Every structure is written in structure tokens, then in C-alpha cells.
């Protein structure tokens, strides 16, 4: 069933990635294991580079916080060779805990970048995504992505799909630098950045907590149910779609 909006009711469409544009399995079965498999090799190969050094600096700070909080992370050595091994051990420890660590995210982004550029990784989106992006683009609707993955990771995913580079079809990418996905203020900031009133911003996600936050900010929302998502029924007042071809804007 199509959810129909009048054309002038929608100024911008903001999309979540995991479970919305992209199968959850891609993130969990392809991206995360790829980063885990390549972390040691990546640290070794790029140890002298500014990017890896900055990621290590951040991880070292986070590690010190973990020690201070008695979280018992693996030991850290600042010796050059043992140091890389302890960075890798700490990164694996963070991954095991699915930590939303800025240092980890930074490093994962660089590892994925290598993977996408070499062709070892290909970004995955559901088949209805590209036609919808083109349709919205043709209607001059602003399209943005808002995901907890870093902007770099988002751009890499959309930049390396089997149908080519989709980034020209997306106007803006937002990550949690703009705020958390369950905070209404994040949606207000995104609307402001897109020069769109909140009530003309349509946010699409598979997570009802995110949709609640966007609704509190005054946005229009749609719950996206995709193959591979945990089964859920739409909470009262929340409309559900199964693909972007069910979003109708205009006549
Ligand atoms: Mg999601």
C-alpha cells in the first residue's frame, strides 16, 4: 500500500541506512567481519600514516577512560611493536562489545575504504532504492542520509554499489556528529541544515525509537519493514512501508 503525500508537504526525505536502505545482514555479515579480519594488517601497513596515528591517539584516550572506569580493557603498550598489537587487541575488545567508539569507527572507516577501493567490498542497497532516489531527485526533493555509521562509511557504501556511485543522488550525509538518533534535537538540526521546515521533513527508518524522536521534533515519519529486519508491527499512529516504491509524493 502506498503512503501518499501531497508534493508540497515534502521538502526533504531523510533515510536511515541499516534496515532501511540496506539489509541489516550487509552491515553485520559483510562490513563488521571485514574490518575485524583486516584490522591487524591495516595497522601494520598504515602505521606511519596520519590517519592511523590519529585513530590510535583517540583509541589510546578511550582506553585510558576504560581503565579509569574499571572496564578492564586488554593491556596497552606504548612500545612501537607491542603497541600495534595492543591497539589491535583493544579494537577487537571494542568490537566484541559492539561499542560505539569514535576511535574504532574512524579506524573501521579507513579499513572499509581500502576494501571498497580494491573492490573487495561492494555497498548494498535494496533494489527499490535507486529508482526512488532518482524519482525524488526529479521532483526536486532534497535527499539525505542519517546513520550512526560515520559520514565516510556512508559515502563509501553509496559510492561503491553494483549500480555504481549513488552519492550524486544524495544531497547530504549526516552521522551522530549532528546528535544521537533518538534525540529530537538531531532532527531539528538536520532540518535546519537542509533549509527545510521540520513538518516538511520525512524521516524513514526501521527503528521506532528514532521515529519517535523525529516525530517529537515535528517531522513526518515512516517505519520501514525490510526482509531481514526483526518482525515488528507498527506502533499506533505509525505508518509502515516495505519499500520506497510505497512512498508516493505528488500526484
Ligand atoms: Mg536502522
Question: Order of helices and strands, N to C?
Answer: EEHHHHHEHEHEHEEE
- Helix count equals 8
CATH topology of the largest domain: Rossmann fold
- End-to-end distance: 15 Å
Which strand order does the major sheet show? Answer: 4-3-2-5-6-7
Bin the helical content: 40-55%
The second-level CATH architecture of the largest domain is 3-Layer(aba) Sandwich
How many extended strands?
Answer: 8
- Integer tally of domains: 2
Q: Main beta sheet, described?
A: 6 strands, parallel
CATH superfamily of the largest domain: HAD superfamily/HAD-like
Computed CA radius of gyration, to the nearest angstrom: 20 Å
Let me know the average pLDDT.
94
Residue windows where pLDDT falls under 50 for at least 5 positions? none
CATH class of the largest domain: Alpha Beta
Q: What overall geometry do the principal axes of the alpha carbons give?
A: elongated
Q: Which structural class do you get from the secondary structure elements?
A: alpha/beta
Percentage of β-strand residues = 5-15%
Query: What small molecules are bound in this structure?
Result: magnesium ion
